[in-house]
Design a protein that fits this description.
Number of strands: 10
CATH architecture: Alpha-Beta Barrel
Number of helices: 10
Oligomer: single chain
Shape: globular
CATH class: Alpha Beta
Order of helices and strands: EEEHEHEHEHEHEHEHHEHH
Helix content: 25-40%
Strand content: 5-15%
Strand order of the largest sheet: 3-4-5-6-7-8-9-10
Distance between the termini: 41 Å
Length: 320
């Protein structure tokens, strides 16, 4: 898989990134550690060498699973993890990074990201200058190689840039969730900041696997996703039916079409999770699909029939 530069750094990332939120198990159902470990290992073997995780995914469990899968071939992978919104004071950032290093069984993290802006999820407000001071110190010590942010608005990103170099931003972005295109993507293009999109398959919606009336196991957070709720769900089903002939044309799945489209958007790389080896193989194959310019436009217009009815709120869920 052809690699790309991460922002202005010499770090090379893959356009398809292995997401491991599900590896933490929290807010997911039916996840098996053994299967996840095999999936992460297979991702690297197939060329998906960039792995995204976070301290909050299962309170470190996801990071530990990544370590179990890759500790003997750590040198072949790029690790991206995140510090949560409740750990943005100077000492808390330092301690959180040490914990992540231990969980990941590594002595450096390639990309360390602020998971949510300070104050999110009812957390204490910490000045971004204080957070960035800690991140810059970790970078100086060689414990992290680059700094990124996640779920930031453009004004929040600009403020962080006052105190250090930000090489990436991680927003929700998919064919069916495109608020990033309004302000974030143009700014990243101007600043050469890499976009690492999460929920690149709209949390599985773009695989087409949910049928007419989706049901979820107890504890599965996806039941609260706004796209599963009326009136959006009817538009989603119609768009999926329009994407199906395009998938047939390319001898692939709708999900693979959605990934192939996404990684051709400006500055965009797609984080895609997987429960098992089979899903990883499907994701990797999406990187080989060569969409025609005409089909890229057609796919784009189908997606907009869903997204034009959404508001500007990038938050995807209606949690209680």
């Amino acid at each position: 898989m052809k690699k790309r530069k991460l922002g202005n750094t010499n770090i090379e990332i893959t356009p398809i990134i292995m997401g491991t939120w599900q590896a933490g198990k929290a807010r997911w159902a039916g996840i098996e550690d053994k299967e996840t470990i095999k999936a992460i290992r297979e991702a690297v073997e197939l060329g998906i060498t960039t792995i995204d995780t976070a301290e909050v995914y299962g309170q470190g469990h996801s990071e530990k699973i990544v370590a179990q899968a890759l500790k003997d071939i750590r040198h072949r992978a790029v690790y991206a993890t995140k510090v949560f919104a409740n750990h943005l004071r100077y000492d808390d950032v330092i301690n959180a990074c040490e914990n992540s290093l231990q969980n990941l069984a590594t002595d450096y993290i390639d990309l360390y990201q602020i998971h949510w802006p300070s104050g999110s999820w009812n957390t204490e407000i910490a000045p971004i200058a204080e957070t960035m001071k800690a991140l810059n110190e970790l970078k100086k010590q060689g414990k992290i190689r680059a700094i990124g942010v996640s779920n930031f608005s453009v004004p929040q990103l600009k403020e962080a840039q006052l105190y250090g170099e930000i090489v990436s931003i991680q927003p929700p972005y998919s064919l069916f969730w495109r608020g990033v295109e309004k302000e974030i993507q143009p700014y990243c293009l101007e600043q050469n900041i890499s976009i690492l999109s999460y929920s690149s398959l709209a949390q599985g919606i773009l695989t087409g696997k949910f049928g007419d009336n989706p049901t979820f196991a107890e504890g599965d957070h996806r039941k609260d996703h706004r796209l599963f709720q009326p009136p959006h769900w009817e538009r989603v089903k119609n768009a999926l039916s329009l994407l199906e002939p395009i998938a047939i044309k390319y001898h692939c799945t709708i999900g693979q079409i959605a990934i192939a489209w996404l990684i051709r958007q400006p500055k965009t790389n797609a984080i895609v999770g997987a429960r098992n080896v089979e899903q990883v193989r499907e994701n990797a194959q999406a990187g080989e699909i060569e969409l025609t310019p005409e089909d890229i436009i057609k796919i784009d217009s189908i997606g907009k029939e869903v997204t034009k009815h959404l508001d500007d709120n990038l938050f995807m869920w209606n949690f209680d």
